[in-house]
Amino acid sequence: VQKHILVVFFTLAVIAFSVGIWHSFKVTAAHQGESSKEVTLLVYAPTSFVDSYGPGDEIKKLFEAQCGCTVVYVDVGGARAALDRLELDSTKHVDVVLGLDLLLLRGAATRVKFQEVLEPKYPSVPELKDYHYQRFTPYDWSPMGFVYNTKDSKIGSRDITEIKSWADAFKLWPEKSIALEDPSLSTPGLEWLFWLYRTQPDIEGGLKALAHATYTVTPTWSAAYGLFKNHQVKSTFSYLTSLIYHWHVEKNHDYQFLAFDEGQPLQIEFAAVPDVCWSCDIGKNFVLFLTSPPIQKIIAEKNYMRPVTANVEVAPEFGELPKVKLLSAEKLDDFVKDQSHLIELWKHAQ
Amino acid sequence: MRNNPLSFALIFLFVSPFILLIPFIKNLENPFTSDFFSVLGLSFLQASLSAVAILIFGFFAALGLVRTANRLRKVLDIILLWPSFVPVLLVLVATLNASMAFARFPFGFWGVVILHVAINSGLIAVMIARLLESQAGAIIEVATIEGASKWLIIRVVARELILEIANLFFFLFVLCFTSFSVPLIVGAQSGRTLETLIYEKLVASHQAGAALSLSVIQIIFLLVFSSRFAAVTNTSTNTVFRHIRKISFLPALFAVVLLSLLLIYGATHGFVLGLNQIRDNQNLISRLSLGMVGTAFESLFVSLLTLSLCFAECLNYIENPDGSSSKFFKSFAAPSAAVVGLALVITFSPETWSNLSLTLLISCGFTLLVFSTLYRLRIASALSALRPQFETARVLGASRLMILKSVAAPALRKDLAFVAGIAAFWASGDFAFGSMVAGRDITLAIGAHSLLGGYRLEAATAVTIFSLFVGALFFLAFDWFGSSPEVKT
Fold first, then answer.
1. Nearest C-alpha of chain B: how many angstroms from A101?
2. CA A277 distance to own-chain centroid
3. Which of A174, B154, B161, B413 is the 20 to 30 Å CA partner of A191?
4. From CA B487, how far away is CA B489, in angstroms rounded?
5. Burial level of A129, CB count in 10 A (0-12/13-18/19+)?
6. Residue A343 in contact with residue A184, Cβ under 8 Å?
7. Whole-prediction pTM value?
8. By the 8 A CB rule, do A121 and A287 touch?
9. Bridge partner list, A264
10. SS3 call for B31
11. How far is A257 from chain B (nearest CA, A)?
């Protein structure tokens, strides 16, 4: 019996293998055929943009319908990895880089050459008026801060909602009760470090107080958020728009956001066209395309971020988000210059 | 005896990721930064503690295993072995889910050690139980007749097996020293290892040169360390000894089995919710069907490549058992996954390749990462046991190919099938390396990794279970092949 099972299994494996090879050749041939007629637009994108729930697929279809090109996304994990690849191999062909965080822009501009892009045709939201650059175009954004679950908000006899500032947080947060992202590995990690730097006169003291409340530091935002969702921690550093996922998709309003009096940092994701592009003009059109209202709606509702273009109609839950004070771009350049030193300070505070 | 070109070709193949990367490195930065020595020390301590703890747990659980009857033993073997052979991703998710129900998982240094113990104790228990049965039976028999107490017999047996235990220690030390996903996700700052430092150099500091240097230092360190332990002995016998139950000790077995069962609970937690999330997304369903095919291909390619490398190394061993490649594989620790991934991406620019070609590239890289571990796990000792037969055949004038075909292949059939099955199983769950090279969801594990990057953790759990299912099918197929009765001797 075993012999027969083996024979059947290996026959099936050989058939599957042959079909796969044939299919691959067919796809490759078709791809080459397409390539001879059309241009390929190679886009480095973050995972959240291209995963099966992300906005990538829908945007690809809509753009391909108007550009006569084929959009190929490459999920490089994040903007840091994209910059590393471009810096290591300067002959690499990449047309668009997505997911460049505001705090990475200075480093990005010094490490990799980017081309100038056109000003978006659509009016921008007022919150982003200070964040317009010749080479980097914002396509989504969100304030950041601490997210909590109202069903798990008790801190002894008090409640997590009593936290209105860093000073309250340092006083009220119990030991090992929050999850943070590693600032040396993830951009949300850099965001909370900037927040602390921007608002605390004694950064070392702030880092020590925060270390006391930290349960663990994770390499990615998703790992920290997973711990929070699994009730391992009371709160985590995330996006204000994370609430949209829970409210809109899970229909769960238990998830809420702690607004601090000092104001919240904001993550802005930028798109850019590197100098090594082959389809540079199409790349620039793609970047502009991302700021058009219909695409902004798709990004907002699938990437769970706020639109950068004014007057975009999005899911009603966006209107229910708490109004928070935003930090200005002041001290941003100083932070970027001091970044390595601050990360060392944070490591010592652990 | 001389080394043949195949031997050098094999060594070259395994160090090729470094060679591929060198032209792209603009400056080889100094890797000895302020944190290098502290991280090296922490890695050493973590790997040593993990290996010792796994050996202690494994040894005592093995004492329980030798008592069990045949049928129960088979079931227990499966329960104990699964955490070692399922993808690390699944064990991580399972551990976090299981710990959620009982207690908070201790992240940091101790978290890394605990997770390594949870993953590997069962495997070591099964390996030590086999060692006890095959090599310590005679001593136990004599000691029992002489009237020695149970604990005295255990002490004598442990002393008798010291060389094998030292080899197991080295195997575990390398496994824990070079472990990447576990310290990256649960290590935080106190659990940093050399492997995560290499990753930090690549991702955070943008120092590819320093990452490359660190990776070379890690390999040299392990090669030097391993020279103390590389000896492999295998004088196994199939005789069954009646008094082996005399040394049985059940509590540790219960503990390790309980740990494995807890992980099974954790792995299935959230599965139904995940299925519902998948059902609601047509895009995800179509990606998963493609991912299923991709996973099957990757598993198949990796197992075939592993088998090919085993045969190649077998040919070398027949020619010269003390040759360079044989020594190399006994002590070589694969370069960092991040370094191999970067080397492949930079060299081949596979972004626009077809899915099948990409799968093949990932399979090649993944095989480079796992082969030396698999070789040490099973093939090294099996080849060592066959050495006298190879030498006799050589003296009688048989060619290398004839010895491979008529002696090695039939005798190693079970071992080869085992490593091919494990290679396929591991490949099915690879997400860290695959996602770095592929840049799109071409396998289920990469798809699960993408889902983990978003809000839908339950869907990721369900997809991971599917990938496990594909890997298990391959493992079972190879297991059938290895245990079919037509083995010629």
1. 14
2. 23
3. A174
4. 6
5. exposed
6. yes
7. 0.82
8. no
9. A326
10. coil
11. 16
ipTM, interface predicted TM-score of the complex: 0.77
B455-484 pLDDT, tens digit per residue, is 787 888 888 888 888 888 888 888 888 876
CA R_g for chain B: 23
How far apart are alpha carbons B314 and B418 in whole angstroms? 16
The enclosing H or E element of A181 equals strand A178-181
- The chain A residue lying nearest B273, using CA atoms, is A250
Strands A154-155 and A158-159: antiparallel
Distance from the B104 Cα atom to the nearest Cα atom in chain A, whole angstroms: 6
Residue among B97, B85, B91, B87 nearest B458 (CA): B97
* Residues A27, B355: C-beta atoms closer than 8 Å: yes
Q: Nearest Cβ partner of A232 from B100, B300, B349?
A: B100
In angstroms, the separation between the Cα of residue B196 and the nearest Cα of chain A is 10
Give me the count of residues in chain A.
Answer: 350
In this predicted structure, what is the pLDDT of residue B231? 46
> Are A215 and B104 within 8 A, CB to CB?
yes
Residue for token pair 């492999």? B232
Considering only alpha carbons, which residue of chain B is nearest residue A23?
B356
* β-bridge mates for residue A238, sequence order: A145
Planar angle of CA B280, B285, B291, nearest 5 degrees? 150
The helix/strand/coil state of B439 is coil
pLDDT one-digit tens code per residue, A255-308: 999 999 999 999 999 999 999 999 999 999 999 999 999 999 999 999 999 999
Quick: pLDDT tens for A97-127. Answer: 999 999 988 888 888 999 998 888 899 999 9
**Do the Cβ atoms of A24 and B451 come within 8 Å?**
no
Cα–Cα nearest to B299, from A16, A198, A38: A16
HSE (CB half, 13 Å, CA atoms) of A190? 23
Q: What is the CA radius of gyration of chain A?
A: 23
All residues of chain B having their beta carbon less than 8 Å from the beta carbon of residue A84 are 202-203, 206, 208, 342
Cα separation, B465 vs B451, in Å, equals: 13
Q: B111 CA to chain A: closest CA distance, Å?
A: 11
Pinpoint the alpha helices (H) of B161-249.
162-177, 181-186, 194-203, 208-226
Query: Which of A52, A87, A89 lies closest to B284 in CB terms?
Result: A52
Query: What single letter denotes the amino acid at residue A332?
Result: L
Between CA A193 and CA B399 the distance in angstroms is 67
Token pair for residue B478? Answer: 């190879």
* A48 part of contact set with chain B, CB < 8 Å: yes
Measure the CA–CA gap between B445 and B423, rounded to whole angstroms: 15
> What is the rounded CA–CA span in Å between residue B428 and residue B445?
7
Where residue A176 falls (left for φ over 0; alpha for ψ -120 to 50; beta otherwise) is left
Nearest C-alpha neighbor of A81 from the set B436, B20, B179 = B436
| Type of residue found at A308 | V
Residue B307 CB coordination number (10 Å): 16
Residues of B in contact with A31 (CB under 8 A): 352, 354
Looking at the DSSP bridge assignments, the partners of residue B354 are none
